[in-house]
Amino acid sequence: MTTKIIHFMVNGRLERAEFGADCSAADVKDLFRAAAEAGPQHILKIYNTSGSVVNVCPQLEANSEDSCYQLEVVATDLQSVVMSAELDNMENRLLHMESKVMEEMRKTPDFICELKQQVECFKRKLETVEHLSWMGLFKDHNEQQLCKFSPDPRTPELSVQEQRQQVRRKFLSMSSLQVTEEVREHLKTPMFDNWQWEEAEMLVLLQVMYTDLDLLTAFHIELEVLQNFLFEVYCHYNSIPFHNFQHCFCVTQMMYGLIWLTDLRSKLGRTDLLIMLTSALCHDLDHPGYNNVYQINAQTDLALRYNDISPLENHHCAVAFGILSKPECSILRNLSSEQYRHIRGGMIKCILATDMARHNEILNKFKVMQPGFNFSDQDHKELMKIMVKVSDISNEARPMAVAEPWLDCLLQEFFNQSDTEKLKGLPVTPFMDRDKVSKPSSQTNFIRFVLLPLFTELTKLFPCLEKHILEPVRRALEYYSDMERASKEEQETTKP
Ligand SMILES: Nc1nc2c(ncn2[C@@H]2O[C@@H]3COP(=O)(O)O[C@H]3[C@H]2O)c(=O)[nH]1
Ligand SMILES: [Zn+2]
Questions:
Q1: Which residues carry out catalysis (predicted)?
Q2: Catalytic annotation on 243?
C-alpha cells in the first residue's frame, strides 16, 4: 500500500502525517486532532497555500514542507449544542400551542404540522455534519463547494466550472429569444421579483437592460462582447449568502428601474447611464463575505494592498477593470481613449461611493447641492454616485415577499463574520453579532437611520419616488416595528 506524506503547520510547529488513500476519514481526522491537541468536540480547519479551506479527508493532496497546509482548531462544536437546545425549546412551545389549539379545533392545523416538520428536519440536519457547512466550517472535497445559503441552490453533483458552463450555454441559447413586453416593463420597476429567475435568465435580463437603454448602439458594443462581459461578471461573484450574483442583479435592476422611473434618459447623457448601470453590475465583484472592518482588523491581503482605505470597494473596482481589460469582454473597447478614461473615472467614483463608511459624507454633499440641482452641471456626478448607492441598499423598497429573504441572507453573512471574529479573537462588529441583533432590531435601525434620511433626500429631487421607494420603506418600518413589539411581548410572557 502506498502512503502519502502531508506537511502542515499547527500551533507554530511544522508537523507531518502519513496515511494511505484507503485510510478512513475518521482516522485521518484523529491524526490531525492529535497533532492539534484537540478533542472530538473540536472542529478542525485546513487551509492550503492560497488560503482556501480544504477538506480533512483521505483524499487530501500530498505536499512538501514548502507547500505545507495550515491546520487550525476553529471551534468547539458548542454551537450545535446551543442550537439543539433552542430547537428543543421551539418544539416544546409548538407542542404547547398544538394542545391549546386542539382544545378548540379538535384537529391540528396545517401550519402547526408544517412547523413541526421543519423543526424535525432541522434537528435531523443538526445530527449530521451538514450544519457545519452552513456555518462555513466544513467543506466537501469538491474543491469549491457552493454555499448552502445561496438563494439559488444548484445541483451539487456538478463542479463549479461545469455549473458555470451550463449557465453560459443556457444564457446564450435563451438570449436570442424574445423577452416579452410584459417582462421588459416589469423589469423597470422596484416590484420585480428576483427570486423567480434563475441565473441564466438573469443574464438575459441584464442584456435586455443594456439593449433597451440603447447602450449597444451608442457605444458600438458587439452583442457577443456584451454577453462575454456579463458572463465574466457572473463568474466573479462568489457563492456567499448575500453579496452574490443575485445581489448584483438586484442592484443593477434597481438602478435600471430608477433610470426609467425618474426619466434620467432625458436628464443625463448615455455615457452617464452606461457608467451607472455598469457600476451597479460590478459594485461587489469578488466580495468575500467579510466586510471592510474585518479586512482591516484581520489584516487581510486586501487591507494590506489598499492601505485600509475602502479595501473591498477598491478590489471590486480593480476586478471590474481586470475583466474589461480582456478584449473579448471589453464593452468599452470601441471607445476613444478619452471616452474610456471618462467612463473609468465615473465608475471608480460610483463603486468607491458604495462604501457605507462614506455614507454621511456623500449624503451631506448631496443635501448641500440639492436646492437648484442642475443636471447639466458637473455636480450631477454626485447624483450618479447616490443613485448607485441607493440601489445598493434598496431591498426594503421591494415587496415584503422579495425583501424579507434578502434580510435572512444578509444576517447569515453578518453572523458568519461575527462568529469568525469571535473565533479569531478579533473585535466583534456589534450589528453583526447574533447575540445582540435580531431581524426586527437590525431593520428598524437601518430603516430609521440610513434608508429614510437618504430616500427622503432623493425624493425631494424626484417626487415620484415617494410612491415607489419611500412608501414601501415606511411600510417595512411598520412591519418590523410590529415584529419587534410582538417579540418583546412574547419574551415578557414567557419569562419564568
Ligand atoms: N441592516 C441592514 N443592512 C443593510 C441592508 N441592506 C444593506 N445593508 C448594509 O448596507 C451595506 C451596503 O454596503 P455592503 O454591501 O458592504 O453591506 C451592506 C449592509 O451592511 C438591510 O436591508 N438591512
Ligand atoms: Zn452591494
A1: 243 (proton donor)
A2: yes
ipTM: 0.99
Q: Whose CA is nearest to atom 8 of ligand 1?
A: 393
180 Cβ contact partners less than 8 Å away, ≥ 6 residues apart: none
Instruction: Give the number of the ligand closest to the Cα of residue 294.
Output: 1
Written as nine digits, the cell of 191 is 416590484
Determine the atom of ligand 1 nearest the C-alpha atom of 403: 22
Tens of pLDDT, residue by residue over 251-273, are 999 999 999 999 999 999 999 99
Are the C-beta atoms of residues 17 and 63 closer than 8 Å to each other?
A: no
Read off the pLDDT of residues 197-244 as tens digits, 9 standing for 90 and up. Answer: 999 999 999 999 999 999 999 999 999 999 999 999 999 999 999 999
| 243 labeled part of a ligand binding site | yes
* 310 Cβ inside 6 Å of ligand 1: no
Phi, psi of 406 (to 5 degrees): -65, -35
Residue 195 CB partners (closer than 8 Å, separation 6+): 151, 402, 405
> Which residue from 393, 143, 430 is spatially nearest to 243, judged by alpha carbons?
393
- Whole-angstrom distance, CA of residue 375 vs CA of residue 273: 13
Could you read off the pLDDT of 61-111 as tens digits, one per residue?
889 988 898 888 765 544 444 455 566 666 666 776 777 777 677 677 777
Does 48 count as an annotated binding residue? Answer: no
**Residues in contact with 322: Cβ distance below 8 Å, sequence separation at least 6, in sequence order:** none
Does the beta carbon of 291 sit less than 6 angstroms from any atom of ligand 1? yes
Question: Beta 3-10 vs 69-76: how paired, if at all?
Answer: parallel
Q: Please tell me whether the overall predicted TM-score, pTM, comes out greater than 0.90 for this model.
A: no
According to the annotation, is 314 in a ligand binding site? no
